[in-house]
């Protein structure tokens, strides 16, 4: 599909009011997106596991209004008005209006909440933008019943990408790929697709224990980090590496070769942080406890031969990935050895999930 496919069709009569609710999960990238061009076009392809319990639930109530000159919305986060999220939503609505021209015809009440602890340092922009985009698509499909499931999901992902790049990987599928790649059929810079190749059963319920090392505000946002890839001395090599890592991942995912999976995933995580450390200005998002956890995971893997590995997002938290067959012993390891490195001893046990779901139909 191209951008044109996401331009709206003819709308039927606009309903007066209604309400839609969607729950969208967070995701964790195996091959990382780091670097982009306007508007929200990734410099390299990426792939992620969709998570299960880390999710955002968003409801939008919509009421037809007289004045169609401006956007009008209220925002409630965990039941309370949240002024500081409003500029981000306003900017998002402006960016997607071309694709959803009904936006100014309604007053929206947006209610959103996260399943994970507030300010746990877990990126809520991916699940948040995905849930919001799905609600808006749901409203659009009331106005245009010709929208089929394929277009619905692709356009939801397309819109989510315009809110936050990684959000386009939080719509559908347990393993989602985003970014045009010559060897991946139907891959696109515009939206995420369900990974189209064989994936071994070991990955179907792969586990992710998220060790919450630092819950405060990051010193450098992802947005700034992406920008610093422009003129970065290693950028071109890094982008090339991501392309070839997606090729390398294909037989690894099909065969379930965990030894090779671990090497690729850990190398991707450290490369992401190496890009941060070698940009100008340079910065470090890992904390001493991040490194302590990484070293303990390496030591545990060496001593017990358990196929556990780590990955990192753009922050200090560590995602510990492992097959469900070793869940009990790895959870004991997390409890006994790693919790001490987490802020207030907090960590979240999650696993690969199936993608976003519609919560109820209150049309
Ligand atoms: C390190 O999607 O948060 O998590 O597009 O500016 O909103 P924006 O950035 P964002 O970047 C995520 C980067 C990452 C890697 C990844 O998820 O692929």
Written overview of the protein:
Helices cover 33% and strands 24% of the residues. The longest helix is centred in the C-terminal third of the chain and has 21 residues, at 235-255. With 363 residues, it is α+β, with helices and mostly antiparallel strands. It has helices spanning 86-96, 125-143, 149-163, 222-227, 235-255, 258-277, 288-304, 327-338; strands spanning 17-31, 36-37, 41-42, 46-64, 72-77, 80-81, 106-114, 175-178, 192-194, 207-211, 309-312, 318-322, 347-351, 357-361. Strands 1, 4, 5, 6, 7, 8, 9 and 14 form an eight-stranded mixed beta sheet that branches. It has a four-stranded antiparallel beta sheet with strand order 11-12-10-13. Strands 2-3 form a two-stranded antiparallel sheet. A hairpin with a 3-residue loop joins strand 2 and strand 3. Ligand DP6 is lined by residues 29, 32-34, 40, 46, 123, 125, 164-166, 222-223, 226, 272, 313-314.
Number of strand elements: 14
- Level of helix content? 25-40%
Major pleated sheet: 8 strands, mixed
Secondary-structure content class = alpha+beta
